[in-house]
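[SOLVED] Need 3D model of a two-part complex

Original post:
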Amino acid sequence: MKSATPKAPYAIIGNSVAAVGGVTGIREVDSDTPITLVAREPHHTYSRPLISYLLGGKVDEGRMPYRPSDFYDKNHVRPLLGVEVLRVDTDARRLEMSNGTSLAFDKLLIAVGGRPIVPPDMTGTDAQGVFTFTTWDDARNIKAYVEKNAVREAVVVGGGLIGLKSVEALVELGIRATVVELADRILSITFDRTASDLATKSLRKAGVEVRCNNTVSEIKRQDGRVTGVVLRDGTEVPCSLVILAVGVVPDTRIVQGSAIQTDRGILVDDHLRTSVAGIYAAGDVAQAADLLDGSKCPIPIFPNAYRQGLVAGHNMAGEEKTYEGGLAMNAVDICGLPTISVGITTPTGDEYEVLSLLDEKAPAYKKIVLKHDRIVGAIFIGPIDRAGIVTGLIKQRVNVSGFKDVLLTEDFGLISLPTEYRKHVVSGTGIAI
Amino acid sequence: MKRIVAKEEFCLGCRLCEIHCLVQHSQSKQIIKVFRSERGTIVPGCHVEQSGLVSFAIQCRHCDEAPCIEACMTGAMHRDPDTGAVLCDQDKCVGCWMCIMVCPVGAILRGSAKQVASKCDLCLGRDTPACVANCPNEALRYEECDT
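Solution:
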């Protein structure tokens, strides 16, 4: 393997949110040392969550870029797009790439993200019309398939966030969609039962069929193309499109066999360092500490990915910065129903206290989970305004015993908070308010 | 950078800051016209919180490390390179409300049609933001400070 390029002072693998966070982090410290960015996908950095909006026609391709077109130039980034890193060689400290060259590096950030799971025990996943849904090209391919085959009915396997956003897009396209979820309710990881029920109602109102406690055991085909699915309970659902959205796992393939330690993802410390000096990991591929309990677990969500990239970038450039820990949280609109969930939403154990307020008709739901007078989780459905104040209280571990009774009130705001904390959030200490 | 600072001991709770914010961000820029025909079409970037005798106006802090920029999935939320203000490009925003989820001061609201995020833009183009300029008791000041 020939070495085509000189050693990169900074190399980044990946081109999504954690990689952009990494570029930004490096540039906040080091304004000009070149960065080489290698990514499998050929596109300029784009907003991955927008693929469902693209599929549904809510945004056009022109709105996909996550950063302006001069992002690489302005940040002295040399992008190698459409080039796949095959292996990270930790001994020689170089990347072996799909174009036959290798790239030696000094500091490396691995931000390759996750890859979608294709259930191994499901037969027929190789049929035409079966897609996973995590990339811009997936959205394009699904759209082209829908148009070419005049798709009217679709089955989405998985009632998590990706599944439901793809359902929303299908609804926009006038396609009758059925969601099949293995658990006994949709969004079972991030929502409690009440919130799941409200989301289910919103989906059914939009004409979506929701089937829980079930899964697809077989995908049927004719002439190679999908014609329907057989569910675990024997029910057959005719459809000409299947979207597999059962989950995403950290894509650790390029470090397998290297000295970089992995568990479910690449293990990183509170500086986003892997087990090999000078090599960092961030985003969906990384397994960093959880803010609430300190345990290391992958939390594949957007804000954590950016934050990890940013912190890694600072450390790569030599300015020490500590990662506070990841907090599971999501804001997602489900067929017109705004929802926010943060932290632990379905607590089990006597040490937790739950405050909640439900108006099923509106619908409006607010739930706050406390542990030893500190908020550790929350759900907002419908009226979500100012939810971030609660997220802030979780992150800062503020003792809320003095104002617990007003947390659910409609006019809950900064004025309800202890003066000291308010001063801290509003303007930094020492300034009035 | 210059930021808006609230002095709660001077705040009367009159909400003129909210009204002048609306006027500033209206089409007509005229208070009566805004009242007559633009009410409900714009959301103020500043709002007054009140409890008993205590009140103050709050708007985006334009944080140095802005959680809303980090959480924004479209790239709509960004920092103006010249002024340092945190701004939302409403043509890019799709209303996912990640920013609302992470803003610790609750300064970002859903716009009037609940489609895109709406927040304080420091009245770019004006020397002094409208809320500050129209506060009758100097409870809002525009001064150089770090967060």
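Edit: The first helix of chain B runs from residue 16 to 24.
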